[in-house]
Design brief:
The chain is elongated and about 55 Å long. α3 packs antiparallel against α8, α6 crosses α9 (196-225) and α7 (129-157) packs parallel to α9. Helices cover 85% and strands 0% of the residues. The mean pLDDT is 88. The protein is mostly helical and 226 residues long. Keywords: Cell inner membrane, Cell membrane, Cytochrome c-type biogenesis, Membrane, Transmembrane, Transmembrane helix, Transport. It holds the Pfam family CcmB.
Length: 226
């Protein structure tokens, strides 16, 4: 048994990252899906820079949202199947603390690559430098939110055979505020307007989700295990 909560946290984070890198095909799916969606828009709509600049924030953020959904279903699936979740629930350490590294690992392998790809995609969609910086800021604040919120829905549906559709129905409405304020910030930056209000709102949501989501995930896992 792990001696301290901190050692448990780092051990679980390391374990999930190692397992993710052992399945490199699955690891590459979310960023490739993100890149593919964004790259198809200039071909399907118009290659004109003026048109692309106007729709770029929505394109990139919708692609990020769909990519996050694409990778969420397997977040707890393997651990539920092999009994790891039951062992975590029986651990002397608080379950909300033990599920946090799993969410962090999910963000590192799905959200962080989208953040790194964003400057290239911003260049592809002819975004200005202020809009690109705003895009990076919103992705840095928003993609962890996608992982935290999505993990709650994943924990609720992990015991269902075909929980993917239900997961989407549960999570998508909760993603809407993130989508609205993130795209609004990028659009405002492109127009030369201040974006502090949108960023403060996203930061407040991230703090709230970081505090409450682990508790909700732990409760959802206990429900799924019962």
């Amino acid at each position: 048994m792990l001696s301290s909560p901190l050692s448990a946290f780092w051990t679980l984070l390391k374990r999930d990252l190692i397992l993710a890198f052992r399945h490199r095909g699955e690891l590459l799916n979310p960023p490739l899906f993100f890149l593919m969606i964004v790259s198809l828009y200039p071909l399907g709509i118009s290659p004109e820079p003026e048109i692309l600049r106007g729709i770029a924030p929505g394109i990139i953020w919708i692609a990020a949202l769909l990519s996050a959904l694409f990778s969420l279903e397997n977040l707890f699936k393997a651990d539920f199947a092999d009994g790891t979740l039951e062992q975590l629930a029986l651990s002397p350490h608080p379950l909300p603390w033990l599920v946090t590294p799993k969410v962090l690992a999910h963000w590192l392998v799905s959200g962080l690559p989208m953040l790194l790809l964003a400057p290239v995609l911003a260049l592809l969609l002819s975004l200005s430098q202020p809009a690109t910086l705003a895009l990076l800021a919103t992705l840095a604040l928003g993609t962890p939110l996608l992982s935290l919120i999505g993990a709650v829905g994943t924990a609720l549906t992990v015991g269902l055979r075909r929980g993917g559709v239900l997961l989407t129905l549960l999570v998508l409405p909760l993603y809407i505020p993130v989508l609205i304020f993130a795209t609004g910030a990028v659009g405002a930056a492109a127009a030369g307007l201040p974006i502090s209000g949108q960023l403060y709102f996203l930061a407040a949501l991230l703090v709230l989700a970081s505090t409450l989501a682990p508790l909700a995930i732990a409760a959802a896992i206990r429900i799924s295990l019962s």
